[in-house]
Protein: Thymidine kinase
Organism: Mumia zhuanghuii
Amino acid sequence: MASLLFFTGTMDSGKSTLALQTNHNHAARGRVGRIFTSQDRAGDGRLSSRLGLSTEAIEVDPTFDFWEYVVSSLTAGGRIDYVIADEAQFYTTAQVEALARIADELQIDVFAFGILTDFRTRLFEGSARLVELADRIQPLQVEALCWCGKRATHNARTENGVMVTEGDQIVVGDVDEPGFPTPNIGYEVLCRQHHRRRMTTARARAVTTLNDPLPFGS
Ligand SMILES: Nc1ncnc2c1ncn2[C@@H]1O[C@H](COP(=O)(O)OP(=O)(O)O)[C@@H](O)[C@H]1O
Ligand SMILES: Cc1cn([C@H]2C[C@H](O)[C@@H](COP(=O)(O)O)O2)c(=O)[nH]c1=O
């Protein structure tokens, strides 16, 4: 029986790396797959990991029809044993439903990867449907950490270095490189407590500096 698996974690928890490794392991055993992604930082039609690996991928926009794509590939004589679906949080409900149908009716394994919640701690549309439909939800094994050392469970967005809780749900960006590719926008992963308190690394540092006692003799 083919399955629909959802691998999830915060930003920077290794999802794209795992997507590339999953593809590698299956391809190495002669299986044939298709790789999909949506709005990867590396640009249209790329799936990239912060470890430096990247590969060509089929770009998914809201009009993309997974069912039609897979059925026409098979009808044209192509072979598809598995599907890799990265940045799945950006997929629509209908697209995730099509992935489930591909697993059930065509017996093609689907490996989906994505973050669960946005910078306001709300579920993304694609992730919500994956939680509802996946055979298994697998949290990433390597823990991303908050600046305090606890497991990071939430994604924070910064605008010019300051954490924000209002704005468009989708804004492509990075945790390592604020301002890329969207000017002024960055992300940081935090534990829930520090997300609630809007306590980013920069703010924690500022507060600590403010509370430092004056040195003796000054
Ligand atoms: N220089 C490095 N050395 C070792 N591991 C790294 C390095 N840079 C990034 N990583 C690992 O890569 C992970 C991010 O991988 P990536 O697949 O891009 O994450 P995601 O897709 O979840 O955003 C980090 O959590 C870290 O474990
Ligand atoms: C929290 C959050 C993230 N995004 C964007 C930022 C990145 O481009 C991707 C996540 O990619 P990653 O490989 O998991 O780092 O999602 C967004 O658009 N809105 C958000 O709220």
